[in-house]
Amino acid sequence: MSDIPFPRGVRDLMPNEALFRNELMRKIESVYQRFGFLAIDTPAFESMSVLTAKNAIGEENKLIYELKNENLGLRYDQTVSLARYYAMHTDVPLPFKRYAIGKVWRMDEPQRNRYREITQADIDILGGKPVLTDAEVIAASARALEAAGVDYELHVNDREAMDFVLAKLGIANELYNPVYHAIDKLDKLSLQDVEKMLTDLKLTDKQIDGIAGMLDLDATNDKKIDYLKDAGDKPAQNMESLLALLDQYVLHGHVIVDLSVVRGLDYYTSTVFEFHSLREDMPGVIGGGGRYDNLVKLYSGKDIPAVGAAMGLDRIMNVLDSQDSPKYTYAEVIVNYIRDENYKYALKVASALRDAGINTDINLAQRNIANQLAFANSARMPAAIIVGDEEERTSKVKLRDLVTGEEETLSLNDAIRTLSR
Questions:
Q1: Measured between alpha carbons, how far is residue 190 from residues 128, 183, 184, 186, 197 in Å?
Q2: What pairing do the DSSP bridges indicate for beta strands 306-312 and 383-387?
Q3: CATH topology of domain 15-324
Q4: What average pLDDT does range 139-162 have in this prediction?
Q5: Using one digit for the tens of pLDDT, what is the confidence trace for 348-368?
Q6: How far apart are CA 28 and CA 93, in angstroms?
Q7: Least packed by Cβ within 10 Å: which of 213, 239, 242, 405?
Q8: Residue ranges of the domains in the chain?
Q9: Can you give the pTM of this predicted structure?
Q10: What CATH superfamily is the domain 333-420?
Q11: What mean pLDDT comes out for the span 105-132?
């Protein structure tokens, strides 16, 4: 096909990018495991009645990919799947700390650094004491970013506190979520555009000015907490407790109380947070989450407090320039041979290397030795083994460093020891 159609909002990964992503996932997964999170796996699709239960995720329902004639949809995030999972497996002990790394799909308008198919690293805690579990989820997510080598800022807020602020401004309860959806657009729209959205919600000029003043509040964390105290003591005290706990984790990133952070999903109930990239030419949110104390009840009928976070691997990869990663292959060496008749000995060598735990490729094409080595260099192999009649007769190999060009003739055991260093 001369003009192959390709979907919008998705991408192919080159071998070096896919390898980079796999290693990134391992780094993140190892942090989650270190924090005691358990691995579970849920299907890529769920019943539409589960995904849209009582409008669980709010206006984002319209972004769900529905599977035609099946009453099924691709998961929008992994949180709803977890809530459904717990409703079907209520015997798991609480607190239930789980992690899952996988793809989710959103029928969103593709933009730079914004895709329709997304890989998320997700952690959640069902049950437990809220402020302690909030801090644990945030800290584990921060440590995952640190393990990946990402410089970040942590922005935290409390939706319960925001509810108090909106109530104080005289805004009707049924408008809270629409107001939050408007505020959540601040990363894509100007404050003036957001104010226009608030006007469309029939808010008064005084109410809009009150919200704009809150969003534009340039003050220390302490001053912002004092602002929240004017609306209600409980959420302000929760914020103080959370900040004190995060101090104990000694996170690398700066923690900022940010009253503009509300998150777009309707199921958030109090603590919300976002991780922002500090890369100047690629700013923006690379992960976030919050507390959703009412979601699990939709499926299980039980009041289970819950908090979670999701890291966007695609955005993290872009921030880390994964496309420029020099590592192209898992193979540490490729076995080449002079003549076709040497293949069986070459295969014996490759098998011995693999049995010794060394990632080993072998030439499988009809090429002369010069083209075999050219292929090894194009595939960015770090080393090559060359065997011919003499090596086969003496049970030795030639080991060539493809970076320096140095070459030596060794016994197979010595080659294994050299490559194992």
A1: 39, 10, 11, 6, 11
A2: unpaired
A3: BirA Bifunctional Protein; domain 2 (3.30.930)
A4: 95
A5: 999 999 999 999 999 999 999
A6: 24
A7: 405
A8: 15-324, 333-420
A9: 0.91
A10: Anticodon-binding domain (3.40.50.800)
A11: 93
